[in-house]
Amino acid sequence: MLDQSFSAHNFDIIYGIESRKGNIDIHSMPTKYLDIVKKTKDIKSIIKELKNKEDDKSIEDLHHNKELLLELQENKKQALYEHLEEVSDIVNSSSFRFELKKLKIKGKEAFSIDTTKHTQFFAIKQLQYNLRNVFKVRQANRHQILSNIKIFLDSKIPVYVIRTDISGFYESIPQKSLIKSVVENSLLNYKSKSFIRGILREYETTKDKSLIPENYGVPRGIGISSYLSELYMRDLDKKLSSRKEIIYYARYVDDIFIILSSLPNRKTLQSYYDDIVALFNDYELTLKQPGIGNKCELIDMYSSLNLKLQKIEYLGYCIEIERINGKIDCKFRMKKEKLDNIKKKMDNAIKHFNDLSVINVKQAYRDLMDSLDYITGNIALNKTKSGVKTGLYYSNDLLDNDLPDLKGLTRYLHSRKVEPYNKLKGYEVLKSRIESKIKKIDLAKRWNERKFNRFSLEQIERMESWL
Question: By its UniProt entry, which NCBIfam families does this protein fall under (predicted)?
Fold first, then answer.
């Protein structure tokens, strides 16, 4: 049976998972625990030195320190468990509640929980675990959705395409229906249900009711909200994906993509979409209507043998579709915003070099080369085997192989002017050398090579400060 308790045992499991991801600041741990960590580090250094020595005294000391290390490791586990027992006692007390802090993200009201407080951090993680495993809810896989869309649109079968968006998704979910789904589930434990009610009460107290109606919405930005919204959408998603004319239905949070092989009798694409809008209205949700900048496109690739180039922006890509003499052509390109962002980073990297060269030209040169490698390469965000990979290739791996966007970015980079401090000795030689080095950078080639760069977290934070 699933252990849903907010216990020290479960928090210990969470600690192991989250610390491996780098999500727990070691400095937030109690002094007793930190002292043991420091002693453990010191003993490991001593052991490392003693391993290189072969005299009897060193061998004896090595054996002694290994025993000390084992003892410290046990003490560390014990200190951690004692701390988590204290955390568990507070979380399970009648006075504990989640504290929501209001903020703005891209102009929308959002919320956060102060996860530097261990009571808040471990409680919300356990609550997310309980929701995920009891209701079997998962947020859709962004990459899988895009891969499937690419396969269907590359299949050359004439189709209808609907790309749309739910207006104010998180803020529109009716709490009454949502709470009913949660409360009526006999598998979710009482404490989890109580915490969900508590979070929604806190949300009602904190939110701006002039923007979000009373008893509507889940707090945007809080981890459990994605699970609660997926739970609410489950029935609606099933109704749409089971329609025989729909060959592919995908929803990533509020972004929807539908591919139809046909339309029911006497239906136009617009009237079919109007029916979908009405279905969403039944769930008190509003879909956007076609229009410039509205994130809603209705594309008929079925009725005519020729369709001029259409561009659909979806989940970070610009999907270009056209039909010429009955043949469908689909290309995945980079969004304009992404291209502009890369150009801005290139400009900022060069500006940083120009400014710093007045003070320290060697450091300026290192920073420039590191920045350009960072912009045009890939990194792993953590060291675990399943570590998230990101960068030029891994954030754009579905691009079509002709890569016009990357070729354009290469031309843009090569056109930038590097201007080191003009009073430097050998100014012209230095400038020529740097420009020559930059002209060797080919983004299309680097995308194909999938090269990884190794940067410490500190290096990345430094580069981001000027990029």
Answer: Drt3a
- What the block records as the tokens of 302 is 């079925």
Rounded to whole angstroms, the Cα distance separating 367 from 102 reads 37
* Residues of the chain with confidence (pLDDT) below 70: 382-387
Domain map (residue ranges) of the chain: 8-91, 142-333, 337-466
**Whether 451 contacts 377, CB under 8 Å:** yes
310 φ/ψ angles, rounded to the nearest 5 degrees:
-115, 140
- Give the Cβ contact number of residue 95 at 10 Å: 5
**Which candidate, 81, 190, 80, 84, places its Cα nearest to that of 130?**
190
Domain spanning 142-333 has what CATH number?
A: 3.30.70.270
Strands (E), 253-326: 255-260, 297-300, 307-314, 317-324
Give CA–CA dist 365/356, Å, rounded: 9
Distance CA 226, CA 243 (A): 25
Q: How many CA atoms lie within 13 A of 304 on its CB side?
A: 8
Tokens 């056109």 appear where?
415
Torsion sign (Cα): 231, 232, 235, 238: negative
Which stretch of DSSP H or E encloses residue 406? Answer: helix 404-415
Contact between residue 389 and residue 378 where contact means Cβ atoms under 8 Å apart: yes
175-183 and 223-241 helices cross at what angle (nearest 10)?
90
Task: Give Cβ neighbours of residue 310 (< 8 Å, ≥ 6 apart).
Answer: 297, 299, 320, 321, 322
Report the alpha-carbon angle 319-324-325, nearest 5. 150
Candidates 283, 261, 168; CA nearest to 272 is: 261
Per-residue pLDDT of 366-397, as tens digits, reads: 999 999 999 999 998 765 445 678 999 999 99
Torsion angle, alpha carbons of 377, 380, 381, 385, to 10 = 170
Helix H segments across 95-156? Answer: 118-135, 142-154
How confident is the model over 154-172, as pLDDT tens digits?
A: 887 899 999 999 999 999 9
Amino acid 218 reads V
Rounded distance, CA 184 to CA 187, Å? Answer: 9
What contacts 24+ positions apart, CB below 8 Å, involve 178-186?
A: 178/218, 178/228, 178/231, 178/232, 181/231, 181/232, 182/228, 182/231, 185/134, 185/135
Is beta strand 327-334 parallel, antiparallel or unpaired with respect to 108-113? unpaired
- Show the tokens assigned to 322: 């056209």
What CA–CA distance (Å, rounded) separates 217 from 240? Answer: 23
